[in-house]
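Inputs:
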Amino acid sequence: MIGGGLSLDQSPPFFSSGRFFLSAPIFIILAGLVLVFKDVSLVRSDPHIVTLIHLFTLGVFTMIMFGAIQQMLPVLAGVKLPQANLVSKLSHIFLFIGTLLFAYGFLNAMIPVVMISAAVFLFLSFFLVLGGSIYAMTQVQKFSPTVKAMSLAIVFGLITAMLGSWMLQNYVGEYNDIHSSIMFIHMVLGIFGFAGILIIGVAFKIIPMFYVTPGFKSFCKSWVAYLIVVGIILWAIFTIFFPSLQWIAILVLTTFFTAFSTTVILKLNKRRRPIADITVWFWRVAGVSLFVGMFVTMANGWVEADLDVFVAVLIGGGFLLSILTGMLYKIVPFLVWFHLNAKGHFNIPTMREMLDKRMSYVQFGLHLFALISLMIAVFYPIFIKIAGVSFVFSGVLIMLNLLKAVRVYMKMKDVEVPDMMAGFTMPEVAKEA
Amino acid sequence: MIELDVRDMPAPEPMQAALTELFKLEEGEIIHFHHIMVPQMLLPRLNNHFFEIKEDGDDVHLYICHKEDAASIETIKGLVG
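Outputs:
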């Protein structure tokens, strides 16, 4: 039972999370430009590939997840970051600049001052958002499965950032033997621990909330995140001490991530209001990509062929990029609706009306085409450029579509509302600039 | 009691439905808002109301009445135990 004394002014201003969501497409475009204009070869050690991976993981995934964390903490956990507005502005600019410096550094023979600056900016950004989130979590009254998963993800995010910063300064100094093991752990923690667990935890709430599906089973909500943590810790330990046993950890992660992906697809097929919605297709592609991607990850250790590109495209692109893009199409219109409504507006376009449906379907096609092109590029390198062009247009379309929703907000936010609505505004939101 | 079961509504329809009912709420009436999560974003809009929340597994029951409506407040307190 929660009484009337609950803190009432929880919602951060529109652009607190909005600035993160609107920046993400810029980095999809930049990643596409790297593929088009740089001489990229699809091997992990190529600096262009390192740049490309981090334009996505930092510029797109982290950008969206930081925006989502700041938005979701009040909605799902009932708490918000201390100095939320300031933290949002600083962490956003640090992440933006840090990612650009990172890309510039890797594309230009790792200029020491650039790499160190990138490490500092990026770490500060992670520290502000994730450190602030940990502090905020200490105020949580009830730890739901979603909040527990968010907490675990946040801890993994901080460790990922620390390892990443260490590696960036290590590139500048003497290359260390342990570097490749740390890099592998950094990658596993970032993808599965930070992004994977955060998405799973948030999915427990937002899939039933936005798509009106049956809820997730108690076992799933209570245990999946912890079991994934076990898999990740095993993977880290085996990577350093017993490399031949890595397959056990991969099997554990494969089991629970594929169980999650199957559950998501089944839930979406049981929607109580099965209306056409492009974001459902993003979730479906994500579910299938994760399912296939985890099996390819397992096979990668057993077959002679190098399947790294397929693993990266399926899990990074097919799973993470798909879900996060789909979420942009839900969260941004929702925020516009919510903030206008909180100012007392009742005559607001629906979330569907705020976006151009055709544009989102074309973008979905470009997104899929880019991912498939990258996999074909393993055999026909010309497809690297084709994938790059697709990413550029895909990013431009996401940006235009999101700006269409933001224009609705900008147009209506200062319009006077009738006095009779005054009692139904949210004081914090109503005074937003 | 005004029954408002929003469990089958996608966001943001539950909030919209709640605000519509709140707008019409009269002295002596109680809204029983039945949802799948605590509506954190709705709570700041209840400054002029009394409310209590009861969680029952995955179901959340939010009871709302006017702040000065002593009889309804007593009824709500009885409902949430």
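Remarks. The mean pLDDT of chain B is 92. Helices of chain B lie at 13-24, 70-80.
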